[in-house]
Specification:
Layout lengths: L6 E2 L6 H4 L29 E7 L7 H11 L3 E7 L4 H11 L8 E4 L2 H9 L7 H7 L3 H4 L7 E2 L2 E2 L2 E6 L1 E6 H6 L11 H11 L17 H8 L17 H15 L6 H6 L4 H6 L5 E5 L3 H4 L12 E5 L9 E2 L2 E8 L6 H13 L11 E2 L6 H9 L8 H9 L1 E4 L8 H16 L5 H19 L1
Parallel strand pairs: 2-3, 2-4, 11-14
Antiparallel strand pairs: 1-14, 4-12, 5-6, 7-12, 7-13, 8-9, 8-10
Helix pairs in contact: 5-14, 8-10, 9-10, 17-18
């Protein structure tokens, strides 16, 4: 897999936004005049219905996308089906992909490990031929350097750009005389600030217990390319940044600066509930979070703004972020409607994904004005945002994390989560945790090869 590095987020967000008022040709002139895929023997066409599976609630953008497309395209109609992006939800998606009667035509992958598994199972269509026949401007919209490849083939295209950051209750920062951290701050500075922010009834920080522990992001900040792999092809879990990431999270747990790990797992605690209900002063999260900031029905009576700081660094000033193109959309290898699916996907990536902006999904297109992006995302709930730090977050220059190796990723991640949990819950010490994770990961790599 390959993604571009050292790009301004502004340069990859919103070419499609400028085209958002255009309609009719759906960004796919190469197919104009062609007979619809499901034309019958007499030449009369019939409507193709595509099933599009994704993890975003339909009210946060997908419904607007589908409504707009369906109104403009009588020959191809799209139905959006939501699955929850957790382990049971991904099993549900893969079960549907195996169905002969109700399978998705398009679906979204949210993790490289999921994509790897689905490719091996023959569920994913290579896209090169469909891209060529559809006339989709891959270079102009996404850029070939930003396209995920597995064994040299393109199996999905990104619909959004994700960026990780720390969201703060700005009033909590002001109460202790601290300003919003600037790009280039470090993980150790983050831990110190979390301690300062902690007070009765409010933890200084929060981590989602279902995500990889922050050791993953600390390691990415130290080695943005193939963080899980050492130079010799073995696992990279012996790296000092990985060890420090585990240790740092445990120190915050033991210092009662974050919710106890077992409590977070048992309560299925989520970043939006903890920060926006005042139980935490900050949370480590990513771009999806902004849709919750705007939800004053679920989180009423807020008299403070949310401020934004980029992901902390392993080395001060490094500006490496576990930022990546996201919402990686694939076409089912068994779909009878591949050309129609590609036509919809081309339109979505060119202009349709601007309908996702109010829900916090930042389009993957290569050109953007960050001020316009920020305004579109905030909408009529701008009072809940510290706009200055939000624009700065979008406009910061990052070196993006890249993944080019996938051997054993699923098992490596499983080992990481299981053994880190034992450490956080005092079932084993740090040395044992690091040793066992590395051993299990090395075995997974060997087995995959």
């Amino acid at each position: 897999m390959k993604r571009g590095v050292n790009v301004r987020l502004a340069s990859v967000l919103l070419a499609g936004m400028l085209l958002g008022g255009c309609g009719g040709n759906n960004g796919n002139s190469a197919e104009e005049g062609n007979a619809p895929q499901n034309a019958n023997a007499s030449g009369n066409s019939k409507t193709v219905t595509l099933k599009w599976w994704g993890g975003v609630p339909e009210e946060n953008g997908p419904k607007a996308v589908v409504d707009r497309w369906n109104a403009e395209n009588s020959d191809i109609q799209v139905e959006y089906i939501r699955f929850v992006n957790d382990d049971p939800g991904n099993v549900k998606l893969e079960t549907a992909l195996l169905s002969n009667t109700d399978a998705p035509d398009l679906f979204v992958n949210y993790a490289d490990a999921h994509l790897e598994r689905r490719i091996k199972a023959g569920m994913v269509e290579p896209l090169e031929d469909l891209i060529a026949s559809s006339g989709f401007d891959l270079e102009g919209i996404i850029g070939s350097e930003n396209v995920t490849k597995v064994d040299g083939r393109i199996y999905n295209l990104p619909a959004s750009r994700d960026v990780k950051f720390v969201a703060f209750n700005k009033s909590s920062l002001e109460a202790i005389g601290e300003s919003v951290p600037e790009p280039g701050w470090t993980w150790d500075e983050y831990a110190v600030l979390a301690g300062k922010l902690t007070k009765d009834g409010q933890y200084g920080a929060f981590f989602n217990p279902t995500w990889e522990p922050i050791a993953f992001d600390v390691l990415n900040a130290a080695q943005p390319r193939d963080a899980y792999f050492a130079a010799d092809g073995s696992s990279n879990f012996g790296h000092e940044a990985f060890r420090r990431g585990l240790e740092l999270q445990k120190e915050l747990i033991d210092g009662k600066n974050v919710m106890p790990y077992a409590e977070g797992v048992a309560n299925k605690a989520q970043p939006q509930d903890e920060l926006l209900n005042g139980r935490a002063a900050s949370t480590y999260t990513s771009a999806y979070f902004v849709r919750y900031i705007k939800d004053d029905a679920a989180y009423p009576n807020r008299d403070y703004q949310i401020a934004f700081a980029p992901m902390p660094q392993w080395t001060a000033g490094g500006n490496i972020n576990n930022t990546k193109l996201n919402d990686m959309t694939s076409i089912n290898a068994k779909s009878p409607n591949k050309e129609a699916a590609m036509k919809f996907l081309s339109w979505f990536l060119t202009e349709g994904n601007t309908e996702m902006l109010p829900g916090g999904r930042i389009p993957s297109s290569k050109k953007a004005d960050v001020e316009q992006v920020a305004e579109a995302v905030m909408g009529d709930q701008a009072q809940y945002f510290d706009k200055e730090s939000f624009v700065k977050l979008l406009d910061t220059q990052y070196t993006n994390a890249e993944i080019t190796q996938t051997a054993g990723l699923t098992e490596m991640r499983k080992a990481f989560l299981e053994e880190a949990e034992k450490y956080f819950m005092d079932a084993q010490d740090l040395d044992t945790t690091v040793q066992v994770i590395k051993q299990r990961a090395d075995e997974a790599i060997a087995a995959a090869k």
